[in-house]
C-alpha cells in the first residue's frame, strides 16, 4: 500500500490516482455505503428517526432559494451550502426522488457561479466550499448534464484548487500547510476531495494539489499523537476530526486505501479523548460541559465523526455515545449503525500530546473505577480534568494555562475555564474580533481570557507563563479509593526553582490540590480559581453556592494564608467576564519552599475528618504510592 513517506510520493511515475474508482458516487456515499445505511436503519427506531429527520429537512429545502454570494459572510455561506448538499444528496441517494436531485443541483450550480470562494481573505471559506462542491458534483453526478457538469468541475478547479495550489506554493497567513492546526486538516481535506472530484476532468491540477496535500496533511494529523488529544481543545477537535473523516472516508471509497493516514499515531484512539473531555456538569441524561481549554466552547451537541470513528476503528463505544448525543444530520445518517453491547471503560485516563490531559471521575462512596460514557447519570459524579503540555506558538487558539483545571460536582461546574465570548455589545467586541487576538507573539496574551491571570492555575510575580515552555504530567495512578496526578510546572514559572502541582480525587468524591513551590528568591504567588458560584469567605474556608447547592473549599496550608476574591474586571474592547468570580489565595512573599493545599468537598466537615494518610505527605511520596499501582 502507498505510504505518506516522501520517498514513496516523490518517486518518478508515482500516480496517486492509479486505483481511482471510475464510477460515481465515489466520495464516501458509494453504493456499498448507501446499502449499509438502508440495512442499518431497517427496523431500528433510532435509524428511522434519523432518516425521517433528513427527509423532512430535505423536503423543507425544496422551496427555498439556493445560497447567495456574500463575501462578508463567506464561511457561513460555505457551511450552509455544504449542509444543504449533504441533506439533499442523502435524501436523493436513499430514495431516488428526482425532486431532491433537482434542488441539490440548483444549490451546486449556484455556488459554482460565484465570482470567488474568498481565498485571499480567509482560505478556510474556500476549503469548505471546495468540499461542498466536490461532494455535490459526486453525489449528483448522474443528474448533471454535460454543460452543468463542466460548470461545476470548472468552479472546483478555478475557485478552489488553483487558489489552493497558490497557498501551498506561497507563504500563506496563517501558515496552515506546515502547522499542526485545524486549518491544516480542513484545508487539505477540502482540497484533496476537490482533486478526487476533478481527477479525470483536469488531471494536471488534480495531481499537483493532491500530492501537495498528501505531503502536508500528515503534519496536521500529527496533532493527535501519541494518545489522541487535540491542542486547540475539544471544540476544534470536532472540526478537525470531521474533516479528517471526510478525507479518509473519501480516500477509502475513491482509491481503496488511505495512504496510511488513518493509522498515524493517536488517530485510532482519538475518540477516547473526546469522551473523556466531557464532564458531569449537566442534568441527568444530558451531555455534560466540555473541558474547554484553549478557545473551545463549553457546550456541545455531539459530532457525526464519532459514528465514523466507530465504523473505521471498530469501536462500538463511540457509536453508543453518538446515539446518546442524538445529533441529527445527513452525515450522522451516512455513518449510522444500531447500538451494540459495549463494556465500560476506566473512569480515569491520561492522554499525552502537545496537550497533556489527565481526567479523574468518580461517584462518592462507590467503587466507580469504571465508567459508561453513554449512560449520563451525573447527579453523584465528580469530574476533574487537568491541562499540561506545551504553550506553543503553533496553536493560535491556545491559552497560557498550564496546570489549569475544571471541576464538576453535583451536576454543576465549580471551577470554570472561561469560554470565548462570541458576541458583545459595543464598545466591546467578540473575542475573535479583538485586535491582534490571533497574534501569539503580539497582543493575544495581553487579554484576560487567554493569559495566565485568567486561568485556574498559579500566577507567579504577576507574569504570564512563557510561550514555548513544556510541562509534563509526571505521575498518574488510581485505585478504587483515590486517583492522583502530579504536574511538573517548573518550566512554566522560570522565576521559581521548582513548581509542582498535585491533584487527588479522594474517595471518588472530594478533591485536593497541592502546590509545592521552591523559589530562587522571594516570589509573589497567587492561587486562582474562576467560578460562576457565589463566594462566601470565612478565613481559610470558602463556601461556594450555585442556586441552593454548596461546595466547601478549605485552605489547608500555608497556615497564615486566607482566601480572598480576585478581580476579573477587564476594559473594553474586551467583553466583561459576566457572572464569573475568582477565588484566590495571595502570598505576597514566598521566600522559601512552600506547600499550598486546597480541599474541595460537598460536605462541610470533610476536611476536618481524618483524610487518606497520603494526603499530608509531600508530592514525592505521592509518586511512590502511584508507582505501586501501575
What is the fold's blueprint, element by element?
Elements: H1 6-10, H2 31-41, H3 45-61, H4 74-95, H5 98-112, H6 123-139, H7 146-169, H8 182-197, H9 203-221, H10 234-255, H11 270-276, H12 305-313, H13 316-325, H14 330-334, E1 345-346, E2 349-351, E3 355-363, E4 370-371, E5 381-389, E6 405-409, E7 412-415, E8 458-460, E9 472-478, E10 482-488, E11 496-506, E12 510-519, E13 523-531, E14 534-538, E15 541-546, E16 549-557, E17 563-566, E18 581-590, E19 594-601, H15 619-627
Antiparallel strand pairs: 1-4, 2-3, 3-5, 5-6, 6-7, 8-13, 9-10, 10-11, 11-12, 12-19, 13-18, 14-15, 15-16, 16-19, 17-18
Helix pairs in contact: 3-4, 4-5, 4-6, 5-6, 5-7, 6-7, 6-8, 7-8, 7-9, 8-9, 8-10, 12-13
Number of helix segments?
15
Strand order of the largest sheet: 9-10-11-12-19-16-15-14
CATH topology of the domain at 35-178: Glycosyltransferase
Tell me roughly what share of residues is in helical segments: 25-40%
What do these coordinates show?
This protein is of the alpha+beta class. It is 33% helix and 20% strand. The strands form four sheets. Strands 9-10-11-12-19-16-15-14 form an eight-stranded antiparallel sheet, covered by helices on one side. A hairpin with a 2-residue loop joins strand 6 (405-409) and strand 7. The chain is globular.
Concise overview:
The chain is an alpha+beta fold and 630 residues long.
Features:
alpha+beta; 630 residues; Glycosyltransferase; single chain; 19 strands; 8-stranded antiparallel sheet; 5-stranded antiparallel sheet; globular
